[in-house]
Design goal:
430 residues, alpha+beta, Transferase(Phosphotransferase), domain 1, 2 domains, three-stranded antiparallel sheet, 27% helix, globular, binds adenosine-5'-triphosphate, ATP-binding
Length: 430
């Protein structure tokens, strides 16, 4: 049976918490701005406006019979119709996903029968700027003709369809989000697959860094599987004995979506503004500080932890930056004292210093205590990463990838040489 696309695990809720750029540089928001989103709204994030889709606009509920439904007509979004022909050549077969910048459809080349993924970028001035950037970054990757290119979905061409900019990609099958959420019933992944996928992820993004590009949106939704083919094996569960289990035939992955990527060659090696998904966001971004390549290391640490645990690292119910930072402190912290002092100087009211801890709930907050109750319970129940990651070498790698202080965080070049990867024997990427 063809698995149905699931809504992204971390899709934005109808009432989503967003901080506008006016707060950048003055630290985190104690009381986040709550914005009621209509079906498709434009909000200011960082220095640009960005389309945010409400769940109704992004979810495509499964239909009986395995057919992929197409999204309803939405303003400025490409409305995919099965049998639509893109650029006079590609027959639309279904929708693979819809994101902030585009609708990605599976399509068949009517001349060769080849299946491709076409990202049809939303039609608005801002998104089209990003289209140009995304294409330029992919061209930069291609120009390198580097062997790491296999770790990115190959770009097969670009074009315009009914005024929408399109990028044609190699089609991949499913994402790590599907794997972690249990859609393919692959959990727990064999340790070997966690190792191989982690290594590819580290090497792929390390390659981006070597070109001066920060991906800035590493999350399980943006890592695809090259193939979802599985075999059934007999698996010895220490508690219940032998049972049948599905295992991927091949652990090859593919990094998607350079839509938010930042070319640091033009930026003096630091970026600014809020970027990426909170669940994978490095603390310096939430503090409103300049950030750099380390934000990808942090996000990769989160993704690898989730692959290993087959579960979220930070709960998707986290309601504000301060709660997220408190969880970082508890799960992969503590924040080093010197770093906390330097943040407190720049963003007063973020830390208490004796002992060092994030101020959560913020002192003097106007929100009634009841509003913080769920957050406090989540924080109390969170356990340090060492409680969940039993493999000592992997735990060490993750602690260093997710070091709360970016100046002490492992670079991906160093990560690729970490002792956890010593046990790789046959990966060609070495
Ligand atoms: N080459 C591909 N093969 C298969 N599925 C793909 C491919 N590219 C994208 N997708 C699917 O489409 C979804 C949206 O694509 P993408 O992330 O590029 O769009 P976006 O608008 O930039 O999204 P975001 O909001 O995450 O920035 C992905 O999460 C993935 O599920």
């Amino acid at each position: 049976m063809v698995p149905m696309p699931r809504p992204k695990r971390r899709g934005l809720a109808p009432r989503t918490i967003i901080r506008s750029d006016s707060q950048a540089g003055v630290g985190i928001l104690p009381n986040p701005v709550k914005v009621h989103l209509s079906r498709a709204s434009v909000v200011t994030l960082g220095r640009r406006q960005m389309r945010v889709l409400s769940p109704e606009a992004t979810q495509t509920p499964p239909q009986a019979g395995g057919e992929v439904p197409v999204p309803q007509q939405a303003r400025r979004l490409y409305s995919a119709n099965v049998q639509d022909v893109i650029m006079g050549r590609f027959l639309v077969r279904g929708v693979l996903g819809t994101g902030s910048f585009g609708t990605v459809v599976r399509a068949e080349d009517k001349y060769t029968g080849t299946l491709v993924a076409i990202k049809v970028l939303h039609k608005d001035e801002d998104a089209n700027c990003d289209a140009g950037k995304e294409v330029r970054l992919y061209r930069k990757l291609l120009a390198g003709c580097n062997r790491h290119m296999g770790l990115f979905a190959a770009v097969m061409g670009t074009g315009i369809h009914r005024g929408y900019e399109c990028i044609i990609f190699e089609v991949c099958q499913g994402t790590l989000c599907d794997v972690i959420s249990g859609r393919y019933d692959l959990n727990p992944l064999p340790a070997r697959h966690v190792l191989e996928m982690s290594y590819q992820l580290v090497k792929g993004v390390e390659y981006l860094h070597s070109l001066g590009i920060v991906h800035a949106d590493i999350k399980p939704d943006n890592i695809a599987l090259k193939s979802c083919n599985t075999v059934t094996v007999s698996w010895l569960d220490p508690l219940t004995g032998f049972r049948k289990k599905e295992v991927l035939v091949c652990s090859e992955i593919c990094i998607l979506d350079l839509g938010l990527a930042v070319d640091m060659n033009n930026k003096g090696q630091t970026g600014a503004g809020r970027i990426g998904n909170r669940a994978y966001r490095a603390p310096e971004i939430s503090f409103g500080l300049p950030w750099s390549y380390g934000i990808d290391s942090f996000a990769i640490g989160c993704v690898v932890s989730e692959l290993y645990m087959a579960n979220d690292l930070f709960p998707s119910t986290v309601s504000c930056d301060l709660e997220h930072l408190t969880l970082i402190d508890k799960i992969v912290g503590p924040f080093p004292e010197e770093y906390a002092r330097s943040i407190e100087l720049k963003c007063p009211g973020t830390f208490t210093l004796d002992p060092v801890a994030i101020c959560f709930p913020p002192s003097g907050t106007s929100a009634p205590a009841a509003e913080h109750m769920d957050s406090m319970m989540r924080i109390e129940q969170a356990c340090p990463l060492s409680g969940s990651i039993l493999d000592v070498a992997l735990h060490d790698l993750l602690r260093n990838l997710m070091h709360p202080d970016p100046s002490m965080r492992l670079t991906l070049e160093a990560a690729s040489k970490h002792k956890y990867f010593d046990r790789l024997s046959r990966l060609e990427l070495q």
